[in-house]
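for the writeup, i need someone to sanity check this before i put it in the appendix. the sequnce is what the collaborator sent (i think, or maybe the updated version? ugh). structure was predicted straight from it, no edits. if anything looks off just tell me and ill rerun, i have time this weekend
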Amino acid sequence: MNAGLSIFHNSHDLYYRNPFGAVPIDTKITIRLEIYCHEFPKYVTLRTWKYNTQEERINMYLVKDDGYKKVYQVELTSPPRPGLLWYYFIVNIEGNTYYYGNNDNNYGGLGKVYKYEPPSYQITVYKKNLHTPNWFKESVMYQIFVDRFYNGHHEGRLLYSKTKCFIYNNWDEAPYYRKDPETGKIVCYDFFGGNLLGVLKKLPYLKKLGINIIYFNPIFESPSNHKYDTSDYKKIDPMFGDNKLFKDLCSKAKDLGISIILDGVFSHTGSDSIYFNKEGNYPEIGAYQSKNSPYYPWYKFYNWPEEYECWWGIDTLPNVNEMEPSYQNFIIYDKDSVLKYWMKTGIKGWRLDVVDELPGAFVKRLRKEMKKIDPEAVLIGEVWEDASNKISYGEMREYLLGDELDSVMNYPLRNIIIDFLLGNKSTNEVHRTLMSLFENYPHEHFYSTMNLLDSHDVPRILTVLGEAPPEESLLEEERGCYKLPPMKRQLALKRLKLASLFQMTFPGVPCIYYGDEAEMEGYGDPHCRGTYPWGKENKDLLEWYKKIISIRNRYDVLKTGQWIPLNPQMDFYGYIRLIDNGKDIFGQEKENNTAVVLFNRSSREKLDITIDVGKWCQEKLVDILNHKQIYLDNGRINLSLEPLEGKLLLQYTN
């Protein structure tokens, strides 16, 4: 590049792109580019790309000339229908063409100059009047894997016993898959006896913890403990209870202010099901048994009946054709469809398993019908990446554009928190990854993401934060019995308090995986699916969770206040949450307040920090975790953060 030339654009700065981030359709956007050079460019062009097919090159015009510094500007209007709008810049000077685009990590913000076509900046364009339920944004979730939560029957007796299953006599044993040594297939599922009566009896515990939503892993009849191989979509698994008990559970939970969300597994069924019936365990004629079965059109057979399309090649999980009308009627449209049947019991929404394997049209139709039943119901999708630009099976998904999902599982945030606390990334890179999500997600979605630290599909957060040996370095038996040594556990517990403080003060809906609040450990499946240690909880950690959940529930500023990141420094990261002028970020009337959240991730060094918060705070703040007052010095906070300490400061009010 010409030694005297530099080019500059920052999509996170309103001077260079206004408005910031995702925008509704038909929104005017101002984009600026700074060029530092003595010569005038022959041309400066904004190259845009929309709907994956339509390219447009727009000439930018000079709006400022200070001799060496030149500012070029263009005003455009976001497309008339939802989608992603991409852009980069083309500059021609003295016969040389330069490109300015997104950075190598596609984080947005500061880009760089390229000699070839660069990565593009993204603008998410969503439908007007996009809305996700406010009650959901203000909630705290709790995920329950029913078999491992609590057995509500006296003496731990089982409601029902299945064939090819192993029942533990000791609740505290480690889960273990019994597999065929030659094929690797599971030949026997293990069960501990947790059931819905147990959940019902523990509702007071969840209420005291501060929970507003229970998200259940699948609870419909199936042969496995995990229930992702559905046998009957309209029947509670008899090991968990029955449909009447579930309805009672929904009613009593509602009385306590707790909503229920179910796991919908609609991309595949079990082979041992009413619909496929490979094992012949049901009186209905399944697709495996006859081409005349009403369920035969649901499945794709290569060579009926033995060769068929399966989920990830697992023959006990035959895929369904979600666009088959009879299947859509059964799940969505029939008077007594699966969707309507369970909504009538009182549930408040669904989490869609492997939503990236469901056609977008199916998701849109399910959501539309769900909203007819209950406009305030929520639809959550299992997405592991940035959901705004997810490509699945060659298709750009439309999860966050207004017609599909209300929320997604925020695995990216989980990864960011882990990388921050373990020092895997600099605090500056942590900040940039957070800003990327903030930029790409509509506010309605950024504030309704399901913010989890772990789940049934990943290692327990305590195990990760304790820097346990890599899972692949241990034998299966070693993984099952591994526990962090005392010093590592203490380190992990300190980090978990920081992680949960982050989780409870960051925009989105915190979700606690059952037992995290009790000091549960475990590698990946099945070890992350152990039993809740009733009576053996870490009391200090449990009280910590009650405290920070209570704080989140008490202060609206931590739910729907603005999020304003502070400049990262070494091992320090922090942000401000703000409600001013009597309204939150969605225009709801809320009490004015300011929260300042600060983290020191170092396990060895104390940090002395000075932060100017005079723009948002006056006179004094309250260190709400330690019940101390912090007085400002000319608008500045001067304080120390001990190793692995987090602080939550709230604007002092009389």
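Residues 100 and 628 are 49 Å apart (CA to CA). The mean pLDDT is 95.
thx in advance!!
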